[in-house]
Amino acid sequence: MSDELMKWTKKRWIAATLVAEGGLPDEKIAQLAKVPVTTLTRLRKNPVFVARVDELIAAGAPEKRRAREARAKRNSEILGRCGDNEPM
Q: For residue 76, how many other CB atoms are within 10 A of its CB?
């Protein structure tokens, strides 16, 4: 399949989104996108797919940063309470 003519199916969009979000192994991404792992492996080598994943990462960067900051603050608060011997 030509890179320029890659057909964006729902499964491929799901796979690209999950890859961009990060944190999941390929086996889980393939399962959630309902594609074989071999298909995901092939997609990861496709420049059009890679470019779309990069776009999704760039578009989601501010939201992900805020989410990371919120998690870090929450974790810090939890650790602070543990240090005070307060029940959780």
A: 10
Please check the confidence at residue 14 and state whether its pLDDT lies above 70: yes
Give domain status of residue 42, yes or no: yes
- Which residues constitute the domain of residue 40? 7-83
Q: Is residue 12 part of a domain?
A: yes
Number of structural domains (the chain) is 1
* DSSP H helix total and E strand total for the chain: 4, 0
Mean pLDDT on 9-32: 92
What the block records as the tokens of 42 is 């092939």
pLDDT of 56-73, one tens digit each?
888 886 677 677 678 778
The token pair that represents 55 in the structure block: 């776009």
Residue 2 lies in a domain: no
- Count of beta carbons in the 10 Å neighbourhood of residue 29: 23
